[in-house]
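User: Is it possible to get a 3D structure for a protein together with its bound compound? The compound here is D-malate. I've pasted both below.
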Amino acid sequence: MELSGNYLFADIAKKVQAFKEENPEANVISLGIGDVTQPLCPAVVEALHKAADEMGQTATFRGYGPERGYDFLRNAIVENDYRARGIDIDAEEVFVSDGAKSDTGNFQELLSDECVVAVTDPVYPVYVDSNVMAGRRIVKLPCTAENSFVPGIPGERVDVVYLCYPNNPTGTTLTKDQLKKWVDYALRNDVLIFYDAAYEAFIQSENVPHSIYEIPEARRCAVEFHSFSKTAGFTGVRCGYTIVPKTLNVPLNRLWSRRQCTKFNGTSYLSQRAAEAIYTPEGKKQIRATIAYYMENARLMRETLTGMGFTVYGGTDAPYLWVKTPSLTPAPAPKGEGSSWRFFDWMLHSAHVVCTPGAGFGPSGEGYVRLTAFGTHEATMEALQRIKNKL
Ligand code: MLT
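Assistant: Yes, that's possible. Here is the predicted structure of the complex:
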């Protein structure tokens, strides 16, 4: 498979920039890249101030930190994200990082180039691009309205499967039973699962697992990636973590540690203190309020778009809505581009709203666009109104 010329979001940013230069008076609203708009919560800001003060005193100054992250953060993760859910994870299995994009992109370095990698289609492009750069073969598992966006077990031998739930881009989820099927398959066939749980904090439904380790046997076959970017507005702060169980059938904990020690000098002390603060009682309350704010956007978007006649998926347990593009899209398609890019162009030129074309996430994304609920209420409402007026 060939590497696409540009990274999807860089490509979109370029198109939007060109539009803005040609139309300086246009007030463009972005519901495109999943970047947050609400500020850091007070508990995090306080922790950052305190950490900055510590860095300014000889007695409390910190230089290089431990490669796997400071104990204070790893213990908070273990207690709050796992033990509180009845999941047994050891702090030695937690690797703090500068975010899930780096970890999901870098983790493939531990694989042989011969490994065959399965990804859902549509998919977060980092999994595909990083493996294509390494020359690996990719098998795509279509997720469409017909299979309710639940990927089928690969029909051929694969070594690794990337699963992201709640899903980016479709905003759909897997139930515990559906996820258990994947764990059973992975164990029966010696397959590794790379499970991206970056959006778990947005889950509202009861039977949707927050972690793959809610299925106990997953400790033998799954690595799990987490991000504070969307959970706590850390897209600019940078912090996330990855769980690499010591009980994996392939001994990756030691290997990932070796890789990180060689190529990574740890996440900044400030970011880690900021992340620790989201596990305090005030921090938890504050980030829950921000998540509720975004999920209210998602609810209104779903309701309004459905009312306009769009078919909408996702947006109930995830901050993304997967919207079927209408068949009549006025703007002509740029050469070689299908309806999702055409709808992207129409949205940008007519409504001055940025979405992400589904085709950018893979061939099964054609015919859809992704909208994020990460805007401000005001901008989101304004964007919906403009779409309604222009349709
Ligand atoms: C997205 O829009 O898919 C995400 O913001 C990208 C990311 O988290 O890297």
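The first helix runs from residue 8 to 22. The CA atoms of residues 110 and 255 lie 7 Å apart.
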